[in-house]
């Protein structure tokens, strides 16, 4: 099944790498492609130059409108394998047949910035998965945070207008540290929970491979007996959930704006295939109102201690795209692309998305036939009475294109539910037409408090620093004061420290919600820590001991660690060992750990920068120094946590430190 989508896409591949005649799009071979057809060598170009006009017209139109949100993204192919049948909960074929492998395409993205923005900005990350099932495409369109800023889709344009670059000067790009965003947050307290996630380390992930994914909304699973369970979807990364630190994220934005794209691409090329396990939180329909929050509220999560996550399968990404535009850029996702056994809830944000996703594809991809673009086509046959339209690529045979008909025996014909036809869950609805918000959606602060309580002390400090930075960038004292007033409902000490840092008064009345409730699953301090596929910089200062260097390199490779050898200039020690980067072409912020090998007493300035930056960012630092006093005048404490003296200890201790990742008590 995994190869079914790959084989389907192959028929659309036009391999230009071999020897081919240059032709027009109509297949006409051309004798010349460097000069337009003119009336004389210095004369005007002739209107009859069809080749020039075709070539230029295509160029003029080869950029499609970028997504309004999630414009900057990267995608990859892979497959999903179910662990055990979920037939007790759903009749979806790909979730009930463990012997079946389902091909997938995943697109990761940022939300606010344009296609030209940086990868490592503070932002929500999109995590959209297209399952090419035998019953049709199923799209799980989520984020790396389990909640959202608003409760009702009618406010989505307002939120996006507020977070986007301000319209009078188109600043800032790819960032939320500006007045209109924080004005919106302060005026819409339902955003309180999400903004706590947004100011946490979750907003600056180390890698897409080390990032959780969430379906955000409450959906329904329906089994063959018609029984329903409410469900939330989770993607749990096998490598654990890890993030950058803010100073590091800002520096990477300048050193390598494509940091996350490159990380994903290179991991797949090397065979370090990213993996996530699919988890489900399930609530029987009869327990819909059994919690102290409304399960349909998209600004609320279901604490894992109350509703455990059931791990049901694994997704592996094992193939990069052949062409970024044709696949990643033209991929069209929609939460309304479902299969039998998966249905919707009345979450008012989800309900609005079910309209807007199709509507936006009509603009981006030129018309109603975007489903015929190869990356969007299902692997199963599709037949209906929809015809014509922009970019129609199917040649439909037959006299009829309507239902019902007698001329074609009423084909294509609807399929009863018992034979696989999709049927919506028959939920009883009884209510008046009304614009409003349910009283059960009015608790804005309890889960914001839960999230902050659940964080480790270093994570809480990062939240305080993030609020101080973002609000410190605002120009309006009113906006700053209103934002601090919002924090005053969540945590008084948080509000106090931020107010002090940005120079606005703390509200006199303490409105902090009183709760010491925690959810350990919300803290990244409790995540999985592995050395696998992390990047190590081996920085040389002087001439190394080549046999020892070779031994260490082999040890790192055996642990599935990537390494780069860095020196003043590119050189080779032997056939298998060479300097790959220079001090000028790379930077310490691009690595997860650093090993410095020095044969001299004087540490060169670029090498010292590697050492001090690595130490500053709490990363593992290994030192093999010929002179034990070479760093006496530096800011690095050799006895500090996560500093490994390889003169006294084996490199395996350094590898354990790499697995740990950061040493926050440094």
Describe the structure.
Its cofactor is heme. It holds the Pfam family Catalase. It catalyses: 2 H2O2 = O2 + 2 H2O. There is a cross-link at residues 334-357 (3'-histidyl-3-tyrosine (His-Tyr)). The chain has 666 residues and is α/β, with parallel strands linked by helices. The chain has three domains: 73-363, Catalase HpII,  Chain A, domain 1, CATH 2.40.180.10; 457-525, Up-down Bundle (Hemocyanin, N-terminal domain), CATH 1.20.1370.20; 529-660, 3-Layer(aba) Sandwich (Rossmann fold). Helix content is 26%, strand content 16%. It has 16 helices and 16 strands. The protein has helices at 2-10, 50-60, 156-163, 179-187, 192-198, 246-255, 259-270, 325-329, 348-364, 446-454, 457-472, 477-487, 492-502, 546-558, 605-616, 651-660; strands at 73-82, 101-110, 125-133, 136-143, 213-214, 219-222, 228-237, 275-284, 309-320, 342-344, 535-541, 562-567, 581-582, 593-598, 621-625, 643-645. The strands form two sheets. Strands 1, 2, 3, 4, 5, 6, 7, 8, 9 and 10 form a ten-stranded antiparallel beta sheet that branches. A six-stranded parallel beta sheet has the order 13-12-11-14-15-16, sandwiched between helices. Helix 12 packs antiparallel against helix 13. It is globular.
